[in-house]
Amino acid sequence: MTTMVPAKAEPLAKELFGARKLPAAAAPAAYGFYSKGCLAGGIAIAPDGAHWQAMRLSRNRRWGHPDLIRLIERLSREAAQDGWPGLLVGDISQPRGGPMLSGHASHQIGLDADIWFTPMPNKRMSVAEREQVSAVSMLKGNTLYVDDRKWTRAHEAVLRRAAKYPEVERILVHPGIKKKLCDTVRGDRSWLHKIRPFWGHHYHFHVRIACPKGSTGCKPQDPTPRSEGCDDSLAWWFTEEPWRPSEGPEKPKARDVMTMAALPNACRAVLEAPAPPSEAAVTLAGPEGLPAQATRSAPALAGAADPASLLLSLQPADIPLPSPRPYR
């Protein structure tokens, strides 16, 4: 009698991408959609900058498309001019994007970033503090409405600044925060259409940029309506329907069942691509580009202007072209 050997289950994509500690050394490109894709040529934002501190460092989610990382650095500087003390940067993406081991459904192609509504303190937090300190909700108790004791004009200003960048496609906030803006913003309100209400997002705001030029494999999201969004579409969030528990058994989250077969074909090559020489070599420390230690760690590449161009400066002999490998 023949004994049947059960087929080996295909590994989950979140386990494969979650295991990569450094990005794919390739031309920067986003593949797929925000909630189903991967990232090539990603760079990291440094744990500390003049106007930012990165949080939850143990997650290794400081990575993104160079366009997004540069935008965060720019926002940190320009928001300071508006009176914002500095950014506390939450999750961006994993080094090669892809589904995460926990948390987000999106953040897979290096074009999403979470910024805390809690302003940066006037001291540099320790690594332990960055793991333990909690963001502060902007809501009043167990309600859908903003607590006026916490909300300031500086919160409005940092959202306005981010929304006015042409690269920013939308910003997700709690419906109560959207309503607060609808009720209080004076003067130019043209940017409000980018502020989109969504579940959660009362501790942080979620910045999403559009597919970058050259990322032909990136699938764009439908554009936001041109109206301010302070109409019946917002009123719906203050009815019972959006908060009603779903009926029947809870479906598994997409990240918990997603295999490589669900992702764009290019993601296999991204996963198998070689890594850059070090994390420091592909970390943005400020508007000047590479930190000094990155240049020292990779002297042959010291002429690169920033981490993204550093990756592109590698010669084919240094980094072989990756080839997709089938998963069985």
UniProtKB/TrEMBL annotation:
Keyword Metal-binding: yes
Source organism, top-level taxon: Bacteria
E.C. number: 3.4.-.-
SUPFAM superfamilies in UniProt: Hedgehog/DD-peptidase
Entry annotated with the keyword Nucleotide-binding: no
UniProt keyword terms in alphabetical order: Hydrolase, Metal-binding, Metalloprotease, Periplasm, Protease, Signal, Zinc
Region (Disordered): 280-304
Pfam families: Peptidase_M74 (PF03411)
GO MF annotations, alphabetized: hydrolase activity
NCBIfam families: PRK09429.1
Record protein name field: Penicillin-insensitive murein endopeptidase
Source species of the chain: Chelativorans salis
Gene name of the record: mepA
